Amino acid sequence: MVWLFFMLICCPVAERKGLKGGRSYDLHEGWNFLKAEDRKKCFEDLKTMRPRHLHVCPPCGPYSTLLQISKDRCDPELRKRKRTEADVLLHFAIQLCQEQMKMGGTFSLEHPVQDESWENSELQHLMDAAGVEAVVFYQSLV
Asked: How far apart are the first and last CA of the chain?
């Protein structure tokens, strides 16, 4: 499972327009946001770097419709642990988005539209904030 977090989306076109790319925060780079110290450091980095745009993608697997259909095939304890971990990561992603808004930046939170995560009260509260809009696109069309 890879949880990606980009301080700023970076591409050559953006750099030519004067945008500076930030760090990528994921397991491949040694970050594990199930550890409180990694979450704290990332949060501090966000406040220090103050990116224009923040993109977060917490894991969606434990919230997926497909997992719900096949839940009887999985060990209940494993499912519960994975869901608890996903809840921690979703909560952290929401906190980052809220801080980004406080600092005047923009954010995007990537999650499949049919997932149960959208029923989370914290996420609903974030979505109800002034200036926050939902954009739905289908990956197969991109």
From this structure: 23
